[in-house]
């Protein structure tokens, strides 16, 4: 499938390459021609240095928690646009692949599926991420098979435009669950199914170990799991910034959500997005892209450093689900540690 970028994003790439912030690798990046080269995680590291999430190892940290624990009561590391680890710079949000994220301790995923030709390619906006839903199912199933104590929350979101389909989004999802020979047996074993009489409540750890719990961010007749941003969830996701100066305001909202999660209803799943980007291509071209918001830039403390400092100095208490771009091992470890305070 083609992954061509719209003209606005081409302009962003050109502007970033020439940015005085030196957001990326210098001259060699400016001379690069292919969007796949521009979008690689190695190039994105650039002057920020290589990420360290692959040095973390927490494949079975949930085994120490009681079965009676509600998932809503946990502190869960998560990733925003989980599969965007080899995309163009404006859409790049991760430096490591899904298997590495899971092994490091990440337990909440953001999976965005375009409905195209009766299958689910994975997208970030209009950009195809060189992966499909089958790849996601295989990777998560392999992980859960090896680590049956764990539960993985998966926000499943309909992304971009629907084209050239002969059936509904729900029908295609059911095909993956019941009919597709590449996924049906894996999902039969590892997909959590809401019980009879389910009213949208957040399930407990005991009933979901070894399972994928769908956070349903699409319209369907059936219920596949808790509704994203529904009555049992409290979501902070202020993701459009007017510039890097707005990172401080974004942090204020994230900090407030941390404080609310620590004392909030124990049956509510709190979700706190550290991720954000520029509100338009013009703002992105000035340097406000996911990696600078996350890691910072000259004169701007990034969201990762702010969150790590808060979690190490602000006492104890549940964080809820913390969704990050380019999470560090320190951030993931600090979130997991909140479950054992």
Describe the structure using short key phrases.
11 strands; 341 residues; disordered N terminus; 14 helices; alpha/beta; single chain; 3-stranded parallel sheet; 4-stranded parallel sheet
Topology (elements, then pairings):
Blueprint (H helix, E strand, L loop, with lengths): L6 H11 L9 H5 L3 H4 L2 H5 L30 E4 L18 H7 L3 E6 L7 E4 L2 E6 H14 L4 E8 L10 H10 L5 H7 L14 H4 L2 E7 L15 E4 L3 E2 L5 H17 L5 E5 L3 E2 L2 H5 L4 H6 L7 H11 L7 E4 L4 H9 L4
Parallel strand pairs: 1-11, 2-5, 5-6, 7-9, 8-10, 9-11
Antiparallel strand pairs: 3-4
Helix pairs in contact: 5-6, 6-8, 7-8, 10-13, 13-14
Quick recap of the structure?
With 341 residues, the chain is α/β, with parallel strands linked by helices. 34% of the residues lie in helices and 15% in strands.
């Amino acid at each position: 499938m083609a992954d061509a970028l719209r003209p606005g994003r081409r302009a962003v790439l050109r502007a970033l390459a020439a940015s005085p912030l030196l957001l990326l690798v210098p001259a060699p990046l400016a001379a690069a021609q292919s969007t796949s080269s521009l979008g690689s995680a190695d190039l994105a590291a650039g002057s920020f240095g290589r990420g360290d999430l692959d040095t973390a190892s927490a494949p079975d940290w949930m085994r120490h928690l009681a079965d009676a624990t509600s998932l809503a009561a946990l502190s869960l590391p998560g990733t925003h646009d989980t599969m965007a680890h080899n995309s163009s710079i404006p859409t790049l949000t991760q430096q490591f692949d899904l298997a590495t994220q899971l092994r490091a301790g990440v337990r909440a995923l953001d999976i965005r599926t375009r409905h195209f030709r009766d299958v689910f390619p994975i997208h970030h906006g209009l950009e195809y991420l060189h992966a499909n839903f089958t790849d996601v199912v295989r990777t998560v199933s392999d992980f859960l098979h090896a680590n049956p104590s764990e539960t993985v929350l998966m926000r499943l979101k309909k992304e971009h435009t629907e084209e050239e389909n002969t059936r509904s989004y729900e029908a295609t999802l059911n095909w993956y669950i019941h009919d597709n020979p590449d996924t049906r047996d894996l999902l039969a074993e590892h997909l959590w199914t809401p019980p009879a009489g389910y009213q949208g409540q957040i399930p407990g750890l005991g009933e979901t170990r070894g399972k994928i719990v769908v956070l349903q961010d699409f319209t369907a007749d059936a219920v596949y799991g808790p509704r994203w941003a529904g009555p049992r969830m409290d979501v902070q996701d202020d993701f459009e910034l007017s510039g890097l100066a707005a990172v401080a305001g974004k942090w204020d909202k994230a900090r407030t959500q941390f404080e609310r999660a620590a004392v909030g209803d124990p049956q509510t799943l709190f979700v706190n997005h550290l991720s954000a980007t520029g509100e338009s291509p013009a703002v992105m071209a000035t340097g406000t892209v996911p990696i600078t918001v996350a890691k910072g830039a000259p004169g701007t403390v990034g969201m990762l450093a702010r969150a790590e400092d808060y979690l190490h100095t602000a006492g104890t208490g549940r964080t809820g689900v913390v969704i990050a771009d380019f999470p560090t091992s320190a951030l993931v470890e600090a979130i997991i540690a909140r479950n054992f305070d």
